[in-house]
Design brief:
Blueprint: E1 2-4, E2 12-16, H1 21-32, E3 36-41, H2 44-54, E4 58-62, H3 68-79, E5 86-89, H4 104-132, E6 135-140, H5 153-173, E7 178-185, H6 191-198, H7 203-212, H8 222-233, E8 244-247
Parallel strand pairs: 2-3, 2-5, 3-4, 5-6, 6-7, 7-8
Antiparallel strand pairs: 1-4
Helix pairs in contact: 1-2, 1-8, 3-4, 4-5
């Protein structure tokens, strides 16, 4: 863990998957919103790069969320008695694999990172949020939580579970001052997409198909998703609770 700056009494956001893609864009957007940041990623160099761009009031934690309990204990040790005002569950993994191609390792790792880690982190922050009767949680689900995507069986299962968990926590704690929502992006142009395409026989053809399944004919950008996370985390989004905000360029419209 490294630290720059100081908290200075400002709001604090805990963001997982902050080393790249939507997680990095969200961290930078929240820095603009005057949050102090606790940034979690498994890649030291990547999360440090995000922290450098975000400025002061940033702490970084290198943790592997495929081991959810151990990673959460590591994060809890850094937070100490502090409870974040905002938790953004953004870390995610996925493989291109249909049911027959999905190994036990793919299944278990996908659910561990995309679902179990988010659950453990909600368990970590909720007691403090409940004690002060305020707090916001945003989980990055997917359009794949709402519709089936070809060769994404483990990914879709994990994201559907994340959305169900979000709604259940909202049902449990809406009366306690807690707001929890999910954003459901369509295909977003991130380094993860680039790595996935590297494993395809014809990456450019697959990229074109991924672009065309959005009605807009393009992938989204991390900044577009981060702007909505900023909105629903703020008082402007205070009437949103237990919601699934779809940001998918029309992927789920037809």
């Amino acid at each position: 863990m490294t630290e720059t700056g100081s908290t200075g009494g400002r709001r604090t956001a805990l963001v997982t998957g902050a080393g790249s893609g939507i997680g990095r864009a969200t961290a930078l957007r929240l820095a603009e919103d005057s949050y102090d940041l606790v940034l979690v990623d498994r890649n030291l160099e990547a999360v440090e790069a995000t922290a450098e761009r975000a400025g002061t009031g940033v702490r970084t934690i290198v943790a592997d969320l495929s081991e959810p309990a151990a990673a959460t204990a590591q994060i809890a040790a850094v937070l100490g008695s502090q409870t974040p005002d905002l938790l953004v569950n953004c870390a995610g993994v996925g493989w291109a694999a249909d049911t027959s191609e999905t190994t036990d390792e793919i299944w278990e790792t996908t659910l561990a990172v995309n679902l179990s880690a988010a659950f453990h982190l909600c368990q970590l922050v909720l007691p403090g949020m409940l004690a002060r009767r305020r707090g916001v949680i945003v989980s990055v689900a997917s359009a794949g939580a709402l519709v089936g995507l070809r060769r994404r069986v483990a990914y879709c299962a994990s994201k559907a579970g994340l959305l169900g968990m979000t709604r259940a926590i909202a049902a449990d704690h809406a009366g306690d001052g807690i707001r929890i929502n999910a954003v459901c992006p369509g295909t977003v142009d991130t380094p993860w997409i680039g790595r996935m395409l590297e494993g395809e026989a014809d990456p450019e053809s697959v990229r074109q198909r991924m672009e065309q399944r959005q009605l807009d004919g393009r992938m989204g950008t991390p900044d577009e998703v981060a702007d909505w996370i900023s909105f629903i985390s703020s008082d402007r989004g205070r009437f949103m609770n237990g919601a699934a905000l779809v940001i998918d360029g029309g992927l789920t419209a037809v």
